[in-house]
Each structure stands twice: as C-alpha cells, then as structure tokens.
Automatic annotation (TrEMBL):
Domain Radical SAM core stretches: 23-265
Family: Belongs to the radical SAM superfamily. NifB family.
Cofactor(s) demanded: [4Fe-4S] cluster
Record key words, sorted: 4Fe-4S, Iron, Iron-sulfur, Lyase, Metal-binding, Nitrogen fixation, S-adenosyl-L-methionine
GO process terms (BP): molybdopterin cofactor biosynthetic process
UniProt-recorded Gene Ontology molecular function terms: 4 iron, 4 sulfur cluster binding; lyase activity; metal ion binding
Record's protein name: FeMo cofactor biosynthesis protein NifB
Functional summary from the UniProt entry: Involved in the biosynthesis of the iron-molybdenum cofactor (FeMo-co or M-cluster) found in the dinitrogenase enzyme of the nitrogenase complex in nitrogen-fixing microorganisms. NifB catalyzes the crucial step of radical SAM-dependent carbide insertion that occurs concomitant with the insertion of a 9th sulfur and the rearrangement/coupling of two [4Fe-4S] clusters into a [8Fe-9S-C] cluster, the precursor to the M-cluster.
Pathway the protein takes part in: Cofactor biosynthesis; Fe-Mo cofactor biosynthesis
Domain of life of the source: Bacteria
Annotated organism of origin: Orenia marismortui
Amino acid sequence: FPEETTMDTILKTAKHPCYSECAHDYARMHIPVAPRCNISCNYCNRRYDCLHESRPGVTSEVLTPEGAYKKYLLVKDKLPNLKVIGIAGPGDALANFEETKEAIKLIKEDDPELTICISTNGLMLPEYAQELVELGVRHVTITINAIDPKIGALIYKWFHYQGKVLSGEEGAKILLDNQLEGLKFLSSKGVLCKVNIVMIKGLNDHHIPEVVNKVKEHGAFMTNIMPLIPAEGSEFEEMPLVSNKELNELRDRCSLDLKQMYHCKQCRADAIGQLSQDISIEFRGTKTDQGD
Ligand code: CLF
Ligand code: SF4
C-alpha cells in the first residue's frame, strides 16, 4: 500500500471485489452517468442498447445523477452485500465531471461508508484529481495502454483537450503525461490506483512489461492486463484475439514486478452484483430516470 493510505482505505479494499480477489462475495454497482468521452480509442464502440453483451462501454441506459441515485436506492435494498459504487462510463468519468461529482455526492450523503470507485482514461486527471480526493474517492482506475507516444498514436485516433482536437504522437504524449501526473498525485494522497492495460497483439503486447514498470514507479497499486475485445464496428474489429494462455503468461511475468489482477470480467458500464454474476438485467428500465 502507498505510504499515505489510511487504515480505513485498507479495510475497504479488502471488501472491493476488483482490488481483492477474496472479496468475491461483495457486490459492486456501476452507475452509467458518464456518456461522453474526450478521446477516441481504436477499440471502442460504445453502444447504448445492447442487452446481452458484456464489455466495458456497453450500457442499456444513461442515467442522470438523480436517476442513478434512485436506482442505487432500489439496488441497495436488494443487495445487502453492496460495497462499491463504480463510475465506469459508458464514456469517461472525468469527461462528465459534473455528473460524476453530483452522483458521488448524492450517494455519499446516503451512505458515507460505501467505496466509490472511478475509472478514467486519465486525460483530465491533472485538473480533477484533487477534487476526487476531496470527494472521498480512494480507488481510481486509469487505463494506460502505452508509455511510448509512438505506440499510443496507433491506439488512439483523436483527443479533445483544452478546446483543441489533437491526434497522433502529439495527443498521445499529452495523454500519457496527464495519466502519469495524475497517477503520481493520487498515489501520493493515499489513493489506490489500479492501471488497466488492454493487451493488443502485435501492437503493445511486447511493450506491456515496460508499462507496468513505469506505472509502478509512479505509485500504481496493481495492474489489470485485459485482452482486446475486437468490437464490431470499431477500428480494431479485425485485430487478432489474445488467448488466455498468452494473457496469463504476460500477467505472470508482470506479477514479478507488481500485483496483477487475474479475475477481471470486463464489465458493462451498468453492471450490478458480484463480479461472477451480473444481475443488472433485473434493474433495467425501472423508470428511475428523468424524475418521472
Ligand atoms: Fe467497477 Fe472498475 Fe471499480 Fe471494479 S470494474 S470501476 S475497479 S468497481 Fe473490475 Fe469490472 Fe474488471 Fe473493471 S471486473 S472491468 S476491473
Ligand atoms: Fe471508449 Fe473508454 Fe476509450 Fe473513451 S476512453 S474512447 S469510452 S474505450
């Protein structure tokens, strides 16, 4: 654990099903309050109405902070083991910071003991990391796929940053600098940062051990190497699949340097329940939004 991590955060981490494999009996709820994104990953194809697909970026609905709060009240009644509220899209939590902030405040007012977990591409971390700490967020996931802007330029199509649209190595360099700055800052405040890395065969797979070492230097608590899902309609639709063997070999190799996650389920942006059992379908279309 980073030096600044409090005992309270350590105890909560023991009940966080993503951060602690033995916390599999506890549930998380993703609230899909963040529809917009400020970058374009070549593997992304966000869809909003897909009931049978499970992967990041997919959700059946986008909720306002109030709608998410109402849905949370329904879910917490049914799930006494609910410990974590996550904001993981369907876009980027920090590209929709007002909504993210409002939703966190509403839920924290109801139950200050819940763990709030944020997932972001990291572009806006230098701007919002301090506020996240003030909001009581102690678990942040940053997706960092490359520490070489040349490789980053192959993974991202464009970046919207400070009123400009950037692309190529220039944009990839800004993204990387912001990710590492945010990671270092958050870790120095005792926030447990998990770095997600999408393993893309032939593109960043050989580079991943370097990514792991670099994020470790910047205070990352663990990394989660995930296989590319070549989503239909995305730029990477035709890219090769990564086998479980290749994935686990890379994780094993990287585990010599830093704690690795082996049990990620590549959840939807509206997933609910234990990691092994997404029950979000039971709560869909419950008319919680738009203030009825
Ligand atoms: Fe959600 Fe992510 Fe928080 Fe977990 S998911 S925001 S850290 S509460 Fe978990 Fe799902 Fe894998 Fe993410 S299994 S995709 S790692
Ligand atoms: Fe899609 Fe997430 Fe990448 Fe944004 S950061 S383009 S939502 S995968």
